[in-house]
Structure formats: structure tokens, C-alpha cells
């Protein structure tokens, strides 16, 4: 008897449901942020999103100067059939309209032609000074008085 091969398509995981108890724990999520931010740095609640079953991330507006568009986040969870809420993670994440640093570019790619020429000139001067110094030392060693 031969068995038929199982389909190799990956199983689809259902979208996690927003746990109503965890979604309502805004004050616990906000209070936990006191570990990493002052109260006046945490703004209004932006929303809550289900990351997984019984795992919800709350986002709050960041009021730090220079962090426009950023959000504080607090992830809360609970065990199955439990009412006790646990804070899992805290942090600061960029939003869609956040000011971000540009991607890193190696120095060799961002240096201008003028700066490259200046660097080469400085290197040539330094090499020339080292050669002159070495030649002077060799001349001094070769010109030592002859002993008769």
C-alpha cells in the first residue's frame, strides 16, 4: 500500500485575535513605561495591536524633543485562563513620519574628489618627511669618524 504525499504548502496561521482584557490594560502598560521614561515624556495612547494570542502591544506618543513621530511601546501578556497581566517588553520605536538617520555610507564612497586629493597630498607630505628623516639618520650613521 502506498501513501500519498502530503501537500508541501505551508500551513496558514490565523491572524491573532486582540485579547479584550489585555487591550484594556492601558494604565498597566503606561505605568510600566515609568521604568524608562518620565511621565511627561509619554503622551496619549495611540492604540493596541495583537502580536499573538494573549500578547498585545500598546503604543503611546513620544513627547521627547527631537523624537517627533516616535512611539513608546509596552507589550503585555497573560497566560491562558489567567487574569494576571505581565509586562513583557518596553521600548521606543519609530513611526511612519519619524525623522531617521540616513543609511550609513562608507567613507570611501562619501568623500569628495577634493577631499581625496587633499588626503593624498597630506599622505605624500608625511611620506616625504619620513623619507627625509630616514635619509638624515642613514647619513649620520655613515659619516661616523674613522678610527685609526
TrEMBL record:
InterPro entries referenced in this protein's UniProt entry, alphabetically: DUF3027 (IPR021391)
Biased segments, Basic and acidic residues type: 110-120
Protein name: DUF3027 domain-containing protein
Region described as Disordered: spans on this chain: 95-148
Positions with biased composition (Acidic residues): 122-135
Source species of the chain: Micrococcoides hystricis
Pfam families per UniProt: DUF3027
Amino acid at each position: 500500500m502506498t501513501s500519498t504525499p502530503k501537500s508541501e504548502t505551508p500551513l496558514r496561521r490565523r491572524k491573532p485575535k486582540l485579547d479584550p482584557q489585555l487591550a484594556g490594560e492601558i494604565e498597566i502598560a503606561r505605568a510600566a513605561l515609568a521604568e524608562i521614561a518620565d511621565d511627561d515624556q509619554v503622551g496619549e495612547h495611540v492604540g493596541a495591536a495583537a502580536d499573538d494570542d494573549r500578547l498585545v502591544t500598546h503604543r503611546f506618543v513620544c513627547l521627547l524633543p527631537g523624537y517627533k513621530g516616535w512611539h513608546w511601546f509596552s507589550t503585555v501578556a497573560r497566560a491562558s485562563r489567567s487574569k494576571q497581566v505581565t509586562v513583557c517588553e518596553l521600548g521606543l520605536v519609530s513611526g511612519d513620519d519619524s525623522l531617521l538617520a540616513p543609511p550609513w555610507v562608507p567613507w570611501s564612497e562619501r568623500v569628495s574628489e577634493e577631499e581625496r586629493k587633499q588626503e593624498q597630498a597630506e599622505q605624500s607630505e608625511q611620506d616625504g618627511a619620513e623619507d627625509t628623516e630616514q635619509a638624515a639618520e642613514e647619513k649620520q650613521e655613515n659619516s661616523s669618524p674613522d678610527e685609526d
